[in-house]
Amino acid sequence: MAIVRVVGVVGAGQMGAGIAQLAAAAQMAVVMADSDGAALTRGLQSISSSLARFVKKGVISEDEANATLARVSTTTSLADMSSADVVIEAVSERENVKKGIFSELDRLLKPSAILASNTSSISITRLAASTQRPQQVIGMHFMNPPPLMKLVEIVRGLATADEVFEQTKELAERFGKTVVSSRDFPGFVVNRILMPMINEAFYALLEGVSSAEEIDTAMKLGTNQPMGPLALADFIGLDTCLSIMGVLHAGLGDAKYRPCPLLAQYVDAGWLGRKSGRGVYHYL
Ligand code: CAA
Predict the structure, then answer these.
(1) 140 touches 23 (CB < 8 A)
(2) Fewer Cβ close by (within 10 Å): the C or N end of the chain?
(3) Residues in the chain with pLDDT < 70?
(4) Is 191-276 assigned to CATH 1.10.1040.10?
(5) pTM of this prediction?
(6) How far apart are CA 177 and CA 170, in angstroms?
């Protein structure tokens, strides 16, 4: 099995930058691409501040942090990824944008390269169908924040080859992650279970069962979660939560996945969570 030396990451947002950091920390050369140059600058800053936290805690030395950052190069052109053994796409959850990137990468990359997507909700089988190498397309779903969260869900599309699954699993393990495998069903494993819990927290809030703070305290202290479901929704982004509930509802067809109207209303108001300064809670 070919060893992965060069990793491409498409998208320099929170997830893309975190994934680039993991690959660089695992001694791989990383090419991080984004069509927006300013996003690349922000992505590098976020890697640098995350590494600084690890230095402060004594997890890595300052030299290791500098060497990790130096292994990340940036570009606005996907053509600069032609030497990549694996490319992990982590752009926003718009299927047509992802398909466009996949078919362009398919033309640019060497035949052996693996195309992975960090999608949390789009079908890997459909993304794979936009390429001429569906057997080498796979889902590699990281959790936010990628440098800290220990899990990667690996999602096999209908055509994904066994060898590609093994190679992707090995890569995630080199990143220091534990892997679970999922079939290509709406929400995979984590969001299939997490999002209905978050959605139910919004229903409990809507119905006045408890206040937001009490709902979160109940779940934090009652079930040992690091954040309550409403705080976690703000952290993930309420628009993302709503969109994933929509995928579960449409894809699984059961009324139990109906997005909570209060969640939809917050999104309509532009209350998207931490990133917009207000969600269930205020952040400014
Ligand atoms: N890089 C390095 N270190 C980081 C970091 C980063 N990006 N973010 C936080 N840290 C460190 C902090 O420096 C801090 O270190 P110390 O304890 O040594 O001071 C520690 O992590 C805790 O951070 P904070 O004090 O800022 O805040 P916190 O205690 O609330 O922890 C958290 C933050 C790690 C995010 C924690 O709240 C948590 O685990 N929350 C749940 C996150 C979760 O469930 N994520 C998955 C969401 S689902 C998903 O991602 C899938 C999807 O498709 C939607």
Answers:
(1) no
(2) C
(3) 1
(4) yes
(5) 0.95
(6) 10
